[in-house]
Amino acid sequence: MSLIEELNSQYTELSFLNSAAAIMAWDMRTYLPSKGNEMRAEALGYISTLAFKKRVSDELGSILEKLSEPETYNSLGDDEKAMVRVSAKAFKRARAIPPALYQKFTVLTVRSEKAWEKARVENDFEGFAPYLEEIVSLSREMASLYGFAENPYDALLEGYEEGMTAKRLREIIEPLKKELVPFLKRLITEGKAPETELLKGKFSRKAQEKLSHKALKFIGYDFEAGRLDETVHPFTIGIGVGDVRVTTKYQPDEFTPSLFGSFHEGGHAIYEQGLPAHLKGTSLYEATSLGIHESQSRMMENIVGRSKEFLKFFYPHIQKAYPSNFKNVPLKKFYRSVNSVKPSLIRIEADEVTYNFHIMLRFELEEGLMKGDIQVEELPARWNEKMKEYLGIEPANFSDGVLQDIHWPSGMIGYFPSYMLGNLYAAQFYAKAKSDIKDLEGKIEKGDLKPLLHWLRENIHSQGRRYSPEELLKVVTEKELDPEYFIRYIKDKYSHIYSL
Amino acid sequence: MSLIEELNSQYTELSFLNSAAAIMAWDMRTYLPSKGNEMRAEALGYISTLAFKKRVSDELGSILEKLSEPETYNSLGDDEKAMVRVSAKAFKRARAIPPALYQKFTVLTVRSEKAWEKARVENDFEGFAPYLEEIVSLSREMASLYGFAENPYDALLEGYEEGMTAKRLREIIEPLKKELVPFLKRLITEGKAPETELLKGKFSRKAQEKLSHKALKFIGYDFEAGRLDETVHPFTIGIGVGDVRVTTKYQPDEFTPSLFGSFHEGGHAIYEQGLPAHLKGTSLYEATSLGIHESQSRMMENIVGRSKEFLKFFYPHIQKAYPSNFKNVPLKKFYRSVNSVKPSLIRIEADEVTYNFHIMLRFELEEGLMKGDIQVEELPARWNEKMKEYLGIEPANFSDGVLQDIHWPSGMIGYFPSYMLGNLYAAQFYAKAKSDIKDLEGKIEKGDLKPLLHWLRENIHSQGRRYSPEELLKVVTEKELDPEYFIRYIKDKYSHIYSL
């Protein structure tokens, strides 16, 4: 075996362990009977530990060391070089944390998630605060071990969005704030708000399921390489080559969450289904980053799914599915209703315009925690200040505020920014796709998304993990990340909808 | 950690690997999208190999060696001694086969199953024969490595039914043949055969599913620790503690296969659900043997499921589910129809009376192959002779004869006898249960199977793997295996049904 083959054989074994863990996790959230939970958690923990051991094994380290020697490295092809780069980086990062600390952190987050569930129900921030303090403290310790140039937050960000820094995030956020905070105020005070009551009613599960299937087929999701099931908190999971599953939740009184949720998860799923098959079992058979992943879901959910063009094609299906609700509702009215903007307390329920503000708030608080500028006990007060500043509202309790998300209890500090980056990447990618594909919007109006899928496959999905997110953006759009694309998209769309 | 704790820690890890493999296998046969098959097979193979390596590891060997030293062993409690006995036996057996031979055999069986699938469709015994020859040859090699006193077949049998030998099987089979071959002839020539046409018709999937659920609940299957799904070849699988799943198949033109199939799988499942929880993660948290397992399924499917008493309770539910089919069919007529006896070519479709003959035939051929008395090329001729002798019929092609089962292509020589043993054990256990439980049949008539479930839990399920099958039989029934119980059961039941 050549060294590269040895490396890939390690990664292939890792892909099998990950695949086992993934089907166990999928089942846990869809079909596992309740009494099986305890043993499943233990067995999944065991398989995850095997995978972790493989990621930090001396064997892998020695292969990577040999491959990194200049003479060897320089003799490799481009893909092979990328394999080594990606693997060596992941190896170094995984090895930076001593097993005892890793273990301590894992045990802590399991307990912390449990404590958070209780605290959220009981609106008890004080009860949860000690866990969060410990998570912040260990996260700071880990950041030092990962290493960073100026900001400990960067060391955590790197785990979710390679190459991203707090400094860069602030540069990106600045124009967003400057342009969109006043724009949001104008929408609310001067705009003509859509009606939204018409989206409420009674919606059969069966018809929702059918619409979700139709939506997934429309965006090119391959049902022979995946499936759609119901769950409590919808997610997409790549279980292996040819097996990428989506989930959704059918609410009896509203059908748009399952419809646009299916678009969202479907966007993630077509990405995974489009990873480069010939690179399976290597470190490149993976998405570029969380942010790039999110760009695919947000593009499908919002830019495509809530567009005039798509709804022109799809709304008749919705009317057919729910005639008593929509037969007398004209398309324009429906289009406006699913694009209503309203500052709200809960991130996951936020519209396109307000969503990023929720992320900025979390980023600023996380960064403060990591630098030691903010203490855990101050979080609720800071949270409310920022909600007021960005959205003009404040939560009446902790559960709708600082306790709403699972990310902190799970120890995932640094994760949130990828949600915002996803929105920005999506706008920039889509602008490029529109300029590359002749009459894209006309095609969508006719129900043909194939040209866009083809474009995404060629430019993004098939790249796997070859590039860092910023490199990919440059390769595809010939530009650095520029929040202007998003700002323009939002202003154009919503000025029109709100008749500004 | 004590040595026993070390042993159990090895077994606990093994239970996690087995649990991962089990959910992967379950999913493969229920929900896996078609394009995911290839990677799933590879990943499952990898996890299975990890489990195999654990079973033969030097670490486990050294723990067992220490535990087997007389002084240490004698200081152990009864359960602990059993743990060591069971583990040491399994270890010795697994280590008897060199990894290269094991690998060769595994690769061969994968190819052989594929070749068999094709051969069966094309009715091509010659095309499949070379694979079977190789399987027989490697099986003989493995039998020598396992070791045996007089008959190489015993070495294979041991892998499925601890302590069983070809000699003992012949002793058991002799009275079965002597009594039941002539009895079958009498049934057919002199008996009044039931009508069976009434079982054909149109049966909605939904109603079948409901009946299967009802049947499973009736026998005490715990849906919080399992679930029922659809598949092509129904099976039961223990995925972990609190998670034992059953599957069935709903045929549109007949509902009895899914109903009695659910009884059968449910019988297996309540066994696994009743394993001793306090012994989880040890070598005793397992069924006694395949034969004992089959006794539970056959008891539920036939002795209970097709009994007058049970049907007196359950038939109204069937009539309610399919009023147009059964509202004018009296109970007695229905009872007779599901207990019709007819020599047939396919084992898995055989009734209670003829089923064992299919097994005898396979046992006699397998033993001949292993001893070298029969050559693979002779199999079809020998098959037909024996079919004629036991059942009075002959297949018109290989696919309905020697090519019908997957066991030989899969390399599972020695497996079949456990099916027959299951029938015999079931009759003997049930006779004892009837004498232990006051008015068991009256209780079943009233729809109350709890006393029987309780009896099975206490006497069989909760024993786990403490005893060998013959020991268990003695502990529970105070007798050696005696085919008379089965013979009497069959003669009583069918003399009555066929008005002999």
TrEMBL record, chains A, B:
SUPFAM superfamilies: Metalloproteases ('zincins'), catalytic domain (SSF55486)
Record text on cofactor binding: Binds 1 zinc ion per subunit.
Binding site for Zn(2+): 264, 268, 294
Single biological process term from Gene Ontology: proteolysis
Keywords linked to the UniProt accession: Carboxypeptidase, Hydrolase, Metal-binding, Metalloprotease, Protease, Zinc
EC number: 3.4.17.19
Functional note: Broad specificity carboxypetidase that releases amino acids sequentially from the C-terminus, including neutral, aromatic, polar and basic residues.
UniProt similarity note: Belongs to the peptidase M32 family.
Name used for this protein in its record: Metal-dependent carboxypeptidase
The organism of origin for this protein: Mesotoga infera
